[in-house]
Design a protein that fits this description.
Elements: H1 2-12, H2 19-29, H3 31-35, H4 43-48, H5 65-71, H6 74-88
Length: about 100
Amino acid sequence: DLKTVIGKVSKFLDSPLTESQVETLIDHLDIKNFRNNPAVNMEAFKAMGVMEKEGSFIRKGVVGGWKQEFEKFPELEERFNTWMEENMRNSKMVFPDNKKT
């Protein structure tokens, strides 16, 4: 629920938004619009040849979709998990253990 998330972030930042600003953000952050935003989808890198011209930098926008991405590359998932463990060891942030689900 994007509207609720925007409200929570706005409150956390102590930066109230008008209803019009919330609606503008909802439209801007909609996955369909987000995917078409050249600043987000790496169009400049495609033009320079750094990224492939076909496809999208933005994934499907489905909750938990990252799990499907990792299914194709289990070695990458292991590298990611190792990196997270090493780099977040001293952090006070707590993430759910995805291995238990």
